[in-house]
Design goal:
Largest sheet: 6 strands, antiparallel
Mean pLDDT: 82
Helix content: 40-55%
Order of helices and strands: HHEEEEEEHH
Radius of gyration: 22 Å
Number of helices: 4
Distance between the termini: 35 Å
Low-confidence stretches: 10-20, 118-127
Shape: flat
Structural class: alpha+beta
Strand content: 25-35%
Length: 166
Amino acid sequence: MKAKKWSVPLLLVTTLALGTGCAAGRREMYIQEKASDYVYRKPIAEVWPQVRALLAEKELPVREAQGGYEISTDWHQQGASSNLGTSYVRYLVRGHQPSPALTQVEILRQNRVESGQGALATANNRTTGTDSVNRTRDREMEWELLQRVDPEGAKALKAEAEATIK
């Protein structure tokens, strides 16, 4: 009898907790999607130093294109080498200026996984090969940049997500 007494409230609390977690995840996805399309109301000369600072904080070695707003990083190993596969990542960041007072920034993340013996391979036994390479927008890093460059815009976007996704 006592088990039944606690079953319904426990089920309600669990359902509410799961629903809240799902809504939080959907809000985060909404925010990151909107951040990818965000247009800064600032000239690119004001935004670009923040792009450099964000990459520097992540300790990513960068190469900047001359005469344009484009930065690429070197391949950076993630985690330890493994016989099952070693993961690498690099970034390409492009700045666009639709008008002198507006800026858009696109951050692309390229992942590479190499299988085989990786760092353990010898000169006679090179079985390392690239298994997969993909390139996607790094919406999480674009959201980080938005919070850094335009805190008020980020705050408004967060409020919009809270109001839109319940």
